[in-house]
């Protein structure tokens, strides 16, 4: 039994207090707070007290209690489940200061609110990091493209080539609108880590969407020093897709292709249609992907991150984003690559018949 002073403390404290005999498995003392919370009775079984504890936590506690005479247990958070509601309790366990005593004192409190607050902080930090990673990859890449288009416009101005100037301005306008759309989607919490926000799946002419994008890159072909090719045998192919995210995917793939394709090479996008599917292929004549990296190519922050041929730094999330978005829209992505011969990424989306 607890002595008088300890009993008085146990009844006045805001903590829950339970003592038990570790050998007989019997509850010896229960203060009012613990009795009300768990409906316990002195003389009852300690196992009844931990019966609603999550099994992994219960096993952990039983292992630690085997060493309680050697070392107290402090700050151990254990989970209890009742009626599908999980609560987190923070425990301290102390063995009574007697070699032959088998009595253990436990002092604990409910820290569910603190744990949930910390989990929310971690979740929001993860979302923040996802936003920063995507913005740094997509927006920075698009701004780099716009910068090259501005250079092209200045060069064309000197030559008074107003047709090229108009084309460059048109492409810059499209890039700005695309980035505004991306930023607005983040402001609405519509980013890739949030599965609670529905996709904007609309029937789109995928040929026209991809052609408009490729026209922007073709304008920069001279500055990029690679040939940009678009190939599709049909003038129109309609599929249900989120157009903004499709452009995001293709910009990522083209950006990666540019990093690893030497001057004089080529980047080609082709679209093929079958009865049930539409496949978009992004192909380059670059340096390819080493065999040792192929298994990690879609890792979120994996070993496949490489510096581009001109020293471009990888943000480490581009291909993970692509895979996530493709699968989110019901498609799948595969690739083939041979060192020094190039890489091809294949995006396959189901086609609905209208």
Structural topology:
Elements: H1 4-12, E1 16-21, E2 26-30, H2 32-38, H3 46-49, H4 55-65, E3 73-82, E4 85-95, E5 103-110, H5 112-158, H6 162-187, E6 202-205, H7 206-219, H8 221-224, E7 227-232, E8 238-241, H9 243-259, E9 266-273, E10 277-284, H10 318-328, E11 332-338, E12 342-350
Parallel strand pairs: 7-9
Antiparallel strand pairs: 1-2, 1-5, 3-4, 4-5, 6-8, 9-10, 10-12, 11-12
Catalytic activity: ATP + protein L-histidine = ADP + protein N-phospho-L-histidine
Organism: Sphingobacterium humi
EC number: 2.7.13.3
What does this structure look like?
InterPro entries: HATPase_C_sf, HATPase_dom, His_kinase_dom, Sig_transdc_His_kin-like_C. Keywords: Kinase, Phosphoprotein, Transferase. Its EC number is 2.7.13.3. This protein is α+β, with helices and mostly antiparallel strands and 354 residues long. The chain folds into two domains: 4-110, Beta-Lactamase; 118-350, Histidine kinase-like ATPase, C-terminal domain (Heat Shock Protein 90), CATH 3.30.565. It contains ten helices and twelve strands. The protein has helices at residues 4-12, 32-38, 46-49, 55-65, 112-158, 162-187, 206-219, 221-224, 243-259, 318-328, and strands at 16-21, 26-30, 73-82, 85-95, 103-110, 202-205, 227-232, 238-241, 266-273, 277-284, 332-338, 342-350. It has a five-stranded antiparallel sheet, sandwiched between helices. A hairpin with a 4-residue loop joins strand 1 and strand 2. Helix 5 (112-158) packs across helix 9 (243-259) and helix 9 (243-259) packs antiparallel against helix 10 (318-328). Mean pLDDT is 82; it is low at 190-197.
């Amino acid at each position: 039994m607890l002595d008088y002073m300890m009993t008085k403390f146990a009844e006045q404290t805001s903590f829950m207090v339970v003592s038990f005999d570790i050998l007989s498995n019997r509850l010896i003392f229960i203060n009012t707070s613990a009795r009300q919370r768990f409906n316990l009775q002195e003389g009852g079984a300690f196992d009844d007290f931990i019966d609603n504890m999550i099994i992994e936590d219960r096993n952990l506690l039983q292992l630690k209690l085997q060493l309680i005479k050697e070392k107290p247990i402090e700050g151990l958070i254990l989970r209890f489940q009742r009626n599908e509601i999980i609560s987190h309790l923070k425990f301290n366990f102390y063995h009574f200061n007697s070699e032959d005593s088998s009595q253990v004192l436990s002092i604990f409190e409910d820290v569910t609110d603190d744990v949930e607050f910390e989990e929310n902080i971690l979740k929001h930090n993860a979302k923040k990091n996802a936003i920063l990673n995507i913005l740094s990859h997509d927006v920075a890449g698009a701004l780099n493209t716009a910068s090259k288009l501005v250079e092209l416009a200045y060069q064309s101005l000197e030559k008074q080539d107003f047709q090229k100037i108009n084309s460059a301005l048109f492409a810059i306008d499209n890039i700005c609108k695309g980035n505004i759309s991306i930023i607005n989607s983040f402001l609405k919490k519509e980013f890739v880590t949030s599965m609670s926000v529905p996709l904007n799946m609309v029937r789109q002419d995928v040929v026209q969407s991809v052609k408009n994008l490729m026209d922007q890159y073709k304008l920069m072909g001279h500055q990029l020093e690679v040939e940009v090719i678009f190939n599709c045998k049909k003038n129109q192919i309609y599929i249900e897709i989120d157009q903004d995210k499709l452009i995001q995917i293709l910009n990522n793939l083209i950006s990666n292709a540019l990093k690893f394709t030497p001057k004089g090479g080529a980047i080609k996008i082709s679209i093929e249609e079958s009865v049930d599917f539409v496949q978009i292929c992004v192909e380059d004549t670059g340096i390819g992907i080493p065999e040792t990296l192929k298994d990690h190519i879609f890792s979120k922050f994996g070993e496949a991150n490489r510096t581009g041929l001109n020293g471009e730094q990888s943000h480490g999330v581009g291909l993970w984003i692509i895979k996530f978005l493709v699968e989110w829209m019901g498609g799948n992505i595969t690739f083939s690559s041979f060192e020094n011969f190039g890489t091809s990424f294949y995006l396959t989306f189901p086609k609905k018949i209208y």
